[in-house]
Every structure is written in C-alpha cells, then in structure tokens.
C-alpha cells in the first residue's frame, strides 16, 4: 500500500483572492452562516471545534457556487460532533507551547475538520491523514494559516465591524486551500 503524497497549501495571495471573489458573490449568506457558527463557538472549551466546522461548511458551499444557508453554520452540531470537538482541540493544542505553537497545530490539523465534514472521517482518520499529508510540509501550512489568520483578525482594527468581512474571507481562503490540496481524492457519499 502506498503512502499518500504530502500536500502543500496554495499561494496565500491566490487563496485570499479566491476568498474575496467568493465573498463578493454571497456576502449576506456567508456572514449569516458565519454568525451562526460564532453562536456555537460560545460554548466554553468545546465550541471552537464545532464553530470551525460550521464556518468551513459555509465556506465550502460558497466556494462551490452554492449560497450557504444560515443553518450550515451549525454543521458542527451533527452526528460527528465529538469528532469535530477533538479535531478542534488538536488544532488549539499548540497553545500549550507558549501560545505560538497554536499556529503550527492549527496549520497541520485544520484540514481534518473538513475531512470529517466531507468524507465522514473519524477524528482519528482525519488526524492520521493530516499527519501523513500535511505534517511533512508543516512550515508552509503554518505560514499559510498564520498569514491568513492575521488578515482575518485585522478587521477588528476597524471597530470590530471589519471582521465581518475579513474573517469570512480568511475562512474562505482556508477552505480554498483544502479544495486545492485534498479535493482530488473521492468524497464519501453524504
């Protein structure tokens, strides 16, 4: 059995451009779906993984030319919610390493959330796929998530209102990176 090839993120500018173009097509549905995901994120400790799954569902639908529904923001509250919670905890586990390690762990593990959404993977399967295919290029993925994350958070400089644009564009860029890197493999039937 052959080991899957390591994957690289796309160029940051390309991903952000795709995110911006997609946001311009569906601004209201994307913002509404993202806000619904933020509501889920309020749940202490475990909400981040559930919210991230919702934002990725919203982002993937928009990237694929479908207007997201607000209910897509609640995608983390599905049958595999535990898998999303564990994947979210893996993403933020780098906080234990002087806080900056979160960029490395998020970069390595964020595609796992989408693997759970798209392929019905368990958290263990998603984690293993990320370790096999993303970790060999962890520096590129870390830089990608760091730059995209800084751009996503930059909207808070405009009295927090700008984050309603910059955060969704950043999430769309992350979903685009998944599409470019992982989409070649077959997706499990929903």
Give me the secondary-structure topology.
Layout: H1 12-25, H2 27-41, H3 47-63, H4 81-92, H5 101-119, H6 123-133, H7 138-153, H8 163-182
Helix pairs in contact: 1-8, 2-3, 3-4, 3-8, 4-5, 4-6, 5-6, 5-7, 7-8
Quickly describe the structure.
65% of the residues lie in helices and 0% in strands. It is mostly helical and 190 residues long.
Structure description:
By secondary structure, the chain is mostly helical. It has one domain (12-182). The protein contains 8 helices and no strands. The protein has helices spanning 12-25, 27-41, 47-63, 81-92, 101-119, 123-133, 138-153, 163-182. Helix 3 packs across helix 8. It is globular. The two termini are 26 Å apart. The relative contact order is 0.18.
Question: What is the domain tally?
Answer: 1
- How many extended strands? 0
- Average pLDDT, rounded to a whole number, is 88
Helix content: 55-70%
Number of helices: 8
Question: Top keywords for this entry?
Answer:
190 residues; mainly alpha; 8 helices; 0% strand; globular; disordered C terminus
């Amino acid at each position: 059995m052959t080991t899957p090839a390591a994957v690289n993120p796309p160029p940051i500018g390309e991903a952000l451009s795709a995110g911006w173009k997609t946001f311009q097509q569906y601004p209201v549905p994307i913002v509404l779906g993202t806000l619904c995901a933020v509501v889920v994120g309020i749940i202490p400790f475990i909400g981040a993984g559930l919210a991230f799954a919702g934002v990725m569902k919203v982002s993937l639908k928009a990237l694929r030319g479908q207007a997201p529904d607000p209910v897509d923001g609640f995608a983390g509250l599905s049958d595999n919610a535990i898998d999303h919670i564990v994947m979210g905890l893996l993403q933020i586990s780098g906080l234990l390493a002087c806080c900056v390690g979160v960029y490395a762990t998020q970069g390595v593990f964020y595609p796992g959330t989408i693997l759970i959404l798209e392929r019905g993977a368990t958290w263990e399967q998603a984690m293993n796929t990320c370790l096999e295919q993303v970790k060999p290029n962890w520096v590129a993925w870390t830089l990608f998530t760091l730059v995209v994350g800084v751009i996503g958070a930059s909207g808070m400089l405009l009295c927090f209102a700008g984050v309603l644009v910059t955060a969704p564009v950043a999430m769309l860029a992350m979903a685009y990176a998944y599409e470019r890197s992982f989409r070649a493999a077959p997706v499990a039937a929903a």
